[in-house]
Amino acid sequence: MTSRQPIPSNPKPMSGIIFLIITVLASLIILFAILYFLYYLWYSLVHRSRTNPYDSSTPLVKLHRFSYKELKSATEGFSDSTSIGKGGSGIVYKGILKDGKLVAVKLLDSGSFQSEREFQNELQILGGIKSPLVVSLLGYCVERNKRLVVYEYMPNRSLQESLFSESSLCMNWGRRFDVILDVARALAFLHLDCDPPVIHGDVKPSNVLLDSEYKAKLSDFGLSRLKLEEEFGVDMFSQELGKSQELWKSQDLSGNFGGMTTGTETPTPIGTPMESQDEVDFAMALQASSSSKGSTMFQNIRPFGFNSVTQNLSFFNENDATTRNAKGKEVSIVENGVASYDEELSSVDHRKELDLGGGDKARNIKQWGKDWWWKQDGSGELCSKDYVKEWIGSQICPSTNPEWDLEKKCSPQKTSLDISAPLSKPEEVQETTLQEQEPETLKKESDKEITEKTCNKKPRKMKEWWKEEHLDELSKKSKKAKRLESFCKKRFKIPHFDIGKRFQFKRKRKFGMQDENGDDPDAEFSFRKGWKRKHTRSMGSDMWSGDLFSRELSSTTSMRGTLCYVAPEYGGCGYLMEKADIYSFGVLVLVIVSGRRPLHVLNSPMKLEKANLVSWCKQLAHAGNVLELVDERLKDDYNKEQASLCINLALACLQKMPELRPDISDIVKILKGEMELPSLPFEFSPSPPSRTFSRSKRRHKSYAE
Ligand SMILES: Nc1ncnc2c1ncn2[C@@H]1O[C@H](COP(=O)(O)OP(=O)(O)OP(=O)(O)O)[C@@H](O)[C@H]1O
């Protein structure tokens, strides 16, 4: 019998497969474990130095939650008679609580993503701050789509009203100086005593509230942000410059900048030859590029002798080899870096600036949209009027920016710039509330070209507009920004969004508290306002879609803060830093001292150079007559030394390079007389006849002899 041999089963492939699966699984597990470990390591490293008292893990400062009913009855049903102000994000009412306590209740506009963010921000940041220098947040109310914030009531309302209303006489010099010091202290508290530091982001007169004794407190933290991270302490600008900054910061800049404006010191003559120091040259070149009398500075610099970092500066004047003087002429820089200086510069007639040749105008227009801040402070390419018109034109021309909702009907009144008129009737003054301007205003014959150019543009969404206008900046900074964006999106918990999650706002619902035709003649143009009815989220952009970036970049770049108060570096992709507050503080100081708004559009003809407060102040500084800026209503009843100090301090704060602006601690010391005001650059200095000019004059003279 033959025994059948069993067909041998082949267990090998099965076990092989099992083995393979186990191996793959095991390696995957190990890989994931390694990845997780690395991720954890990275996460803890990144968060090591973070202190964040406001994030969701930290219990909020106990804020009282009011019911809507309670606040409604406190404000007599939000009646007009209790309304005390209207801002970009809502209406403020005066209320009396059941216990008799006076409060200010801000009823926020709803349906706007921006408002919600600001609400969250306000609660998170202001709710965590307790200081006599900052207005107290007493509570909030969230009911369905209604959001209200309750503050301590400030009987003397805002500085804006005190300075510009009929009762402005209450703001004598002593009070003005005290307010300046109070605001400086408040900023010092935010920047230095808070952990993490708080950057206010919207320092302006309407956000400075006055108590019964006219003591000032900072309010409105809707646009504030926390400085969470060391990395966020450096904006891209600084990072790129970091190396050179270190070098030239160690220099005695005061000596090298030469100009003294305190009035007691002797200014270094403009033509004084300087030691060749690349770093200083570089800093000065930047100063020069932003100077209204920039061409004078080129006498002392070697424009092409900057260190290589300079090339990265997107804001650096495109015309490296040439710069423009205030008349639109080009000032060429001669080979050895010495520019010819036109004596006439020291007596610029801005009316003539309007008569730019066609070529110049076209070039200027091109340049205009790109870096409007350079122009806003009278950088020399166009005058204030052009700036005002161009800027307003770009804002109000419906075909240019259809997305920018113009909420108000424009006044049919033809408006011209004038500041020479006394301010005895402050109500005559119209802030450049852009909504109030009529496109027709721009259709003057002489400005036709500008207007056509502005208005004939294809309608663009603001995002596109921004991208186009800042293409250069974008290309240079996008790499860095993208990296940071993804970094932030993934890792950073932005504290002011936590509450939003908890409250689960219903964004689509609207409530009808918006006053479509509401008009506040005292209001400043806040970018918030322009945004509030817009779909911020769409502008929040696919480009910068992260929480942080939708706040800090998309809604910002050139759009964040309040016109004329926002720092120039914020026009790019810079982060909101302390020095941005310092810049705004500088503008605020000038506004307080002069009793003028930073940008005036009046109904009567006036000297154009006064239209832009910052620009005018720089001109006065250059002419050595800063006290002309002081509010005429004060007559001679003010402390000249203090006024001069304040104006010069403001100029120091208004320097283009954030790094050159003083720190808030120094500002407080300077105001308290504990520290000398550092020297200011040439552009802010009294301008003696230039040596070059004098020399050549002398030469001519000797030839004549
Ligand atoms: N706590 C308060 N006490 C008294 N008045 C207040 C108080 N808070 C605000 N106000 C008044 O309400 C006005 C509007 O304030 P709000 O903060 O809403 O807007 P804003 O700062 O003028 O503008 P934006 O919100 O666009 O920056 C202020 O100018 C001020 O007169």
UniProtKB/TrEMBL annotation:
Stretches assigned to coiled coil: none
Compartment(s): Cell membrane
Low complexity bias (residue ranges): 682-693
Listed Pfam families: Pkinase
Entries under InterPro entries matching the protein: At4g25390-like, Kinase-like_dom_sf, Prot_kinase_dom, Protein_kinase_ATP_BS, Ser/Thr_kinase_AS
A cellular component annotation (GO) from this entry: plasma membrane
UniProt-listed SUPFAM superfamilies: Protein kinase-like (PK-like)
Stretches the record annotates as Disordered: 415-454, 682-705
Keyword tRNA processing among record annotations: no
Compositionally biased region (Basic and acidic residues): 440-454
Transmembrane regions listed in the UniProt entry: 16-42
GO MF terms held by the record: ATP binding; protein serine/threonine kinase activity
Biased composition (Basic residues): 694-705
Protein name from the UniProt record: non-specific serine/threonine protein kinase
Organism per entry: Solanum stoloniferum
